[in-house]
Specification:
This protein has about 200 residues and is mainly alpha-helical. The protein has one domain. It has seven helices and no strands. Helix 2 packs antiparallel against helix 7 and helix 5 packs antiparallel against helix 7. Bound molecules: heme C (2 copies). One heme C binds next to helix 2, helix 3, helix 5 and helix 6.
């Protein structure tokens, strides 16, 4: 059954993707949820969650060969703490090792370096330890994600040196799955379909 809302969204998407892969098919809630699943495979990847951690401010070293027995994700070595500043200003600043300059990052296990001040995101952008539905609800609402609107999210994907590094981390690190344009496309489908999250009451 096509609701008026669905028809309007369908029309928008047909325009936005005219000639593209989605021209024939008006996206519905199911397509938007599937697009969210694609977004979630990225935002739950260690190249993103090692920084997108909670209030403790301890960055992680997951997926880098430091795993030990047990379910706990390995924490950053050397007792590094980002603290409230999120850049370790209170103890040892991240830049002591993660120099803020573009780098090939081709030395395995060297501290990654990018052309931005290496730091943890604000606490409200934490993803580690949250379910897909929890991150979904957090990201769709500017009030719960550091005031990022859907357009801001897409712009951030396009411009952030952190995101660019996550998809091309160098030095034998496993990259985040897919590509930035693919993630932006999934975001567009999710937004056009009304940013549904698993567990929402059915419209
Ligand atoms: C080195 C740490 C670091 C890594 C790694 C990192 N981020 Fe972030 N991320 C940040 C910071 C810091 C911000 C806050 C905005 C800013 O200062 O640029 C942020 C903000 C964001 C936001 C803004 C919205 C929000 O509510 O979370 C998105 C989206 C995002 N990052 C996506 C990603 C993705 C996708 C990856 C992995 C491919 C990733 N980040 C990896 C540090 C990181
Ligand atoms: C004393 C040096 C040092 C300091 C200070 C330091 N780091 Fe690191 N960091 C490293 C090294 C070395 C690695 C690479 C570990 C590896 O690849 O096995 C690393 C890796 C990381 C990773 C994992 C990246 C990935 O591949 O997923 C994150 C996240 C991270 N650091 C965050 C931080 C943050 C945030 C700060 C500041 C609060 C910080 N680091 C301060 C040395 C440092």
């Amino acid at each position: 059954m096509i609701s008026l809302r669905g028809a309007i969204i369908g029309g928008t998407i047909a325009l936005a993707y005219a000639g593209g892969a989605f021209a024939q098919e008006a996206p519905d809630r199911a397509a938007a949820l599937a697009a969210w699943d694609d977004i979630h495979t990225v935002v739950s990847h260690p190249r993103c969650t090692n920084c997108h951690v909670g209030p403790a401010g301890v960055p992680l070293w997951e997926g880098l060969g430091h795993e030990e027995a047990g379910d706990q994700a390995p924490v950053h070595g050397m007792n590094i703490l980002a603290d409230e500043s999120r850049i370790g200003a209170e103890t040892m600043p991240c830049r002591t090792c993660h120099i803020s300059a573009a780098s090939e990052n081709n030395v395995p296990h060297a501290p990654p370096m990018i052309a931005d001040a290496w730091r943890l995101p604000p606490i409200e952008m934490a993803w580690k330890g949250k379910t897909s539905a929890e991150i979904c609800v957090q990201l769709r609402d500017p009030d719960s994600n550091g005031a990022f609107t859907p357009e801001d999210l897409s712009d951030h994907l396009r411009t952030s040196a952190f995101v660019a590094w996550g998809f091309d981390p160098g030095a034998g690190r496993e990259a985040a799955p897919g590509s930035i344009p693919e993630m932006q496309e999934a975001l567009a489908i999710w937004v056009a379909g009304g940013t549904p999250c698993a567990g929402d009451p059915h419209p």
